[in-house]
Amino acid sequence: MSYLELEDVDVRLGDTEVLRRVSCSLDERTIAVIGENGSGKSTLARLVGGLTHATGGTIRVLGLDPARDATRLRRRVAVVFSNPDTQIVMPTVAEDVAFSLRSDKLSRDEKTRRVDEAMHRFGLTEVAGRASHDLSGGQKQLLALCGAFVRRPDLVIADEPTAYLDARNARRVADHLFEEGRHRLLLVTHDLALARRCEKAVLVQDGAIAAVGAPDEIIAEYEVGLGC
Ligand SMILES: Nc1ncnc2c1ncn2[C@@H]1O[C@H](COP(=O)(O)OP(=O)(O)OP(=O)(O)O)[C@@H](O)[C@H]1O
């Protein structure tokens, strides 16, 4: 079984049918989700992350049903959104990163070591004691990513993770996202250069999956549709 299995999945939010009969079986380590504004990409990401529930069909993520195994899934999946404010919960940067490890059964020393190492990787060591909400938009984005990676998840779901970042930090974050390691990546992005770095691409159109394939081919199809 692939780690991402969707069969005839529908998602209705209020009166809107946001995703319709979505089916796919994906096992590539890095997957890009592309498509026009409002096509349903973020909803698909939230669905895979267990934050939005299907109203029809079946879904398995890492072999788990997000509706029934939410706790187990949360332990293995990290979701990062384009708006980092929704993810920052603790007063200082270091506390916020440590908060991500609150339910991990690690010794205090091991937690401290992991937090320090993650802050170093994301260039946050110098602002470790600063108030989280006083950071710039880009620094907040790095903090949200740091909080996701410190947990060493099996699957990272990132929705426009480089949206607020300058070129240097965007590169740094992309390098972490694509780092050879244990995590798989589902990346929602309008940055087609980033999408090209994935092993597979999914094109979402009007709430449905229009195409799945090699990124170059799927991006070409998308650009034709956009009239580029
Ligand atoms: N909670 C909600 N209630 C009703 N409609 C919603 C809700 N969330 C999203 N939608 C609608 O679902 C559609 C898809 O939204 P979604 O955010 O998934 O698109 P997207 O492809 O990620 O767009 P973008 O590229 O602009 O971020 C949009 O028409 C949006 O208005």
UniProtKB/TrEMBL annotation:
Residue ranges annotated for the ABC transporter domain, each copy included: 4-227
Query: Which keywords are on file for this protein?
Result: ATP-binding, Nucleotide-binding, Transport
Q: Does the keyword Repeat apply?
A: no
Cited PROSITE patterns: ABC_TRANSPORTER_1, ABC_TRANSPORTER_2
Q: Pfam families from the entry?
A: ABC_tran
A GO MF label: ATP binding
What CDD domains does the record point to?
ABC_cobalt_CbiO_domain1 (cd03225)
By its UniProt entry, which SUPFAM superfamilies does this protein fall under?
P-loop containing nucleoside triphosphate hydrolases (SSF52540)
Highest taxon in the source lineage: Bacteria
The question of whether NAD is a record keyword is answered with: no
Similarity comment text for this entry: Belongs to the ABC transporter superfamily.
PANTHER family recorded: ENERGY-COUPLING FACTOR TRANSPORTER ATP-BINDING PROTEIN ECFA1 (PTHR43553:SF24), HEAVY METAL TRANSPORTER (PTHR43553)
What is the recorded name of this protein? Energy-coupling factor ABC transporter ATP-binding protein
Q: Which organism is it from?
A: Promicromonospora vindobonensis
